[in-house]
Amino acid sequence: LLIGFWFEKNYPDPKQITPREAGLKAFLTTKVGDAFLFLGILYLYSQAGSLSYADTLFNEEFLHHLATTPALPIFGGWSVAAVIGALMFGGAVGKSAQFPLHVWLPDAMEGPTPVSALIHAATMVSAGVYLVARIFPLLHIVVEVEHHNPAMGLIAFIGAFTALFASIIAVAQNDIKRVLAYSTISQLGYMIAALGIGAFVAGAFHLITHAFFKALLFLGSGSVIIGCHHEQDMMEMGGLKNKMPRTFWTFVAGGFALSGFPIITAGFWSKDEILAHAWHEFLHEGVVSWPFFVWLLLTLAAFLTAFYTGRQISLTFLGQPRSHHAEHAHETPNSMTVPLMLLAFFAIFVGFAGVPEEFPVLGPLLGHNWFHGFVGHEYGATPLNWTVLGLSSLLAVGGLFLGWLVYGRKPLAHGEMDPLERAMQKVGLGWLYEAMRRKFYFDELYDATVIGGVIWLADKCFRFDNRWVVDPIVNLAGRAGRLLSDVLGLFDLKVIDGLVDLAGRTGASLSAFSGLVDNVVVDGAVNGTGQVTGWVGARVLRPIQTGKVQNYLLVALITVLALLGLYLVYW
């Protein structure tokens, strides 16, 4: 949401990512890592039945059980503890923008600059490192049991590779905020690598010191952008040292701390401790070992960090203005520069909380190494190593000096090509510089593979659903149902309705016949009986009823004779 704060902002170039798209990209990319984190949490819960720290990561007996229990054969003989640690580290890869899930963080620069300062100093990008630090007991117990942990080797190598990889890309960036974005990715790689080699204290220390000087640098870049009327291209800046003095000196303090300038900056003490632990590990394991490659990658990254910091300071503040915006730049108000001065103070002095006790003058003067005691020095505390201290100091000073030598001693003029790009083109490496500028084409690679693959799969699923299988089956079922409905309708109309109509007509015919029989036969018989009876009464019986006795006697005689005749005939 913060990255996409300016959600209505669009650019004329359709290839340039918008804040809305950058926020979506950050969300989706980190969800890939979150999927691994969720699997690790589920695996841990399946073993412990709880997610409480007291029952799991702070329970030594339970941790020992995980370290001695082999995981499924698919994990190549790793212990359950190592597998859970590696899965949870997947979440850190997404949140802390480690290779290969680093692509979201540079585009997060589309958000407001204070948001960038917050994200890079104290929120999600730090959460991944903090997650690995919190599960460190789970990782370390495997080392105690098996004397090595492949998961920690994986963590260290990914962190060290990311540190170098991001610093190489930062060298070729011209956007002032994107240089710092790749710087953050690189420094997060430092912290991850430190935890991977067991330098728990150094990794946690660098996490804290980095928060101060990286917040300072981002807010300083915001001050520069405001002072230059929202110009972000360093090639269009220059000459801001005198126009924005407070921003310049605080930015230099942050840049020197990022580079690890010796003694007087916080970044020196924390970064030196990481390099010292990597040096110690590779001496213990031998040159042909993964700790050696981790140390080598981190050392090269340290030099490049100082170089691109010197380049950034030189291009932004030194020389003459190279654009109209830089020509009319102005110092920002106190509301922006006072926070810079406060952060500059901490970027220099917070490192003294972790000065080794054996360091001359400062060690005895400051007394007990407060930070080691605060964090818990039993895990991965690193003794002072003068060889590494001298080497890291040389790298910091040499990188800054080389950055000034290339970009500051003879400042660029308006429209002049980057000196490094020009030099690489002369030796036939122009393609490499272009690859660095284009971030080694990872966005294009992911567009062609991951995003293109998802779109291809979505299209095939759409076709499967809409054209090939699902919808055709549904449509066929619909047509079959419609046909069956038509057949049943015809059957109902022609057969069922016909039978009903026939039964109705038959009933009507029977009713008519019954009415006819009733009218003709029944009523005729009744009426005929009545008529016969009336006729007999009128024609036969009534004449007999005369009232004369002789007539009655005659009738009686005739009746008796008739009955006698019948008796004689049928008896």
Summarize the helices and strands and which ones pair or pack.
Layout: H1 19-48, H2 60-68, H3 80-95, H4 104-107, H5 113-122, H6 124-134, H7 136-146, H8 150-171, H9 176-196, H10 200-227, H11 240-243, H12 245-259, H13 266-285, H14 290-317, H15 324-327, H16 334-349, H17 362-366, H18 370-375, H19 386-407, H20 419-426, H21 430-437, H22 442-468, H23 470-544, H24 549-570
Features:
elongated, single chain, 24 helices, 571 residues, mainly alpha
Q: What's the overall average pLDDT, rounded?
A: 88
Characterize the overall form.
elongated
Please estimate the helix content. over 70%
**Number of separate helices:** 24
Explain what this protein looks like in three dimensions:
The chain is 74% helix and 0% strand. With 571 residues, the protein is mainly alpha-helical. It is built from 24 helices and no strands. It has helices spanning 19-48, 60-68, 80-95, 104-107, 113-122, 124-134, 136-146, 150-171, 176-196, 200-227, 240-243, 245-259, 266-285, 290-317, 324-327, 334-349, 362-366, 370-375, 386-407, 419-426, 430-437, 442-468, 470-544, 549-570.
Task: Give a concise summary.
The protein has 571 residues and is an all-alpha fold. The chain contains 24 helices and no strands.
